[in-house]
Amino acid sequence: MLNEPACGKHRPVFYFTVVLCVMEKMKINPDAIRVEPSWPPASERKAFLDAAVARYNRPHFIPDDPISVPHRFSALQDREIIGFWVAMLAWGNRKTIIQSANTLCTLMDHAPYDFMRNHQEQDRAGFLNFKHRTFQTIDTLYFLEFFQQYYRQHLSLETAFSRHLSAGDETVESALIGFHRDFFDHPYAPDRTRKHVATPERGSTCKRMNMFLRWMVRNDPHGVDFGIWSQIRPDQLLIPLDVHVERIARQLGLLERPQVDWRAVLELTAQLRLLDPNDPVKYDFALFGLGVMGV
Fold this sequence. Notes:
This protein is mainly α. It contains 12 helices and no strands. It has helices at residues 11-25, 45-56, 76-88, 94-107, 112-118, 137-151, 158-162, 173-183, 207-217, 243-251, 262-275, 283-292. Helix 2 crosses helix 12 (283-292), helix 3 (76-88) runs antiparallel to helix 9 and helix 10 (243-251) packs across helix 12 (283-292). The longest helix has 15 residues, at 11-25. It is globular, with a radius of gyration of 21 Å.
C-alpha cells in the first residue's frame, strides 16, 4: 500500500501521478477523464506552498521565462529598461514574448541605457516595424520618448515609483497610480498606449506592473528576481494575478472574490501575507508553477 506523502510534499502531484499509473495499467485513456487534485487542508497550506516555492523559485525557471532577458544584463539601468518593456509585453506565449524582447535588444544595440540616453531621432527608424500583438508602432515610439526624457534627468526608474510612496503605505498601490500618471504626463501621450501600462485607478489587476516590481524589488536568495531596488520593501509588493495564479488560489481557498480585478489582488496578497509577512509574493512562484504544470 502506498504511503501518503508528508505534509511538506506535493500531495496533489503525488495523487495525480498515482491515478495516472493506475489508469495506464487499466488501459484507460487519461485524456478522456479530468482528474482533480486533492488540495491540502488549511492547516497544511503554508507547508504545501513553501514546498512549491522551493521547487519553482530556482535558476532553472529563468531560461523559459521573460525574466531571462533582463538577466542578460548587469547594469541596473539596462535591467530596468528592458525589464520594464518586456514585462509590459508579457501576455500570451512566453516564447513569443522572448522573441519580441530579443528584437528590442537588437534594435537597442544590446545597450538599452546607452541607447536611451544618446540615440537620435533617426535611430528610431528601425523601431517602426516593431509590433507585439496589440503593441503597435505608436506605443513603441512613446516608450522610446518616455525613456529618453526620463533617463536624461534621472539615474534610476525606481524613483518614478518610490517617490509616490509614504512611510506607512502597506502596498505599492500609490506607487503604481503615481507612476501611471507620470508616464502619461505628456501632451502627446497616446490614449491607446494606456492599455499597456495598467493602473489600480481603473480596477486593473496590474499583473505585468506587479511582476516588474517583483523582479526589481524582491530579494531572491536563488537569483531569479534581482532585488536591485531598495526604496520599496518586498512586503509592500502585490501578487501578479494571472489566470494560472487565480485558478490555483481559488482551489486552495485563498481567493473568494468572483471578479478578477484590483480588489482580488489585494485580497489574495493579504492571504499570502499571513503565510509570509515579509515576502508574500514569493508565492507567485508556487501558484504560477502549479498552474502551469496543470495540477
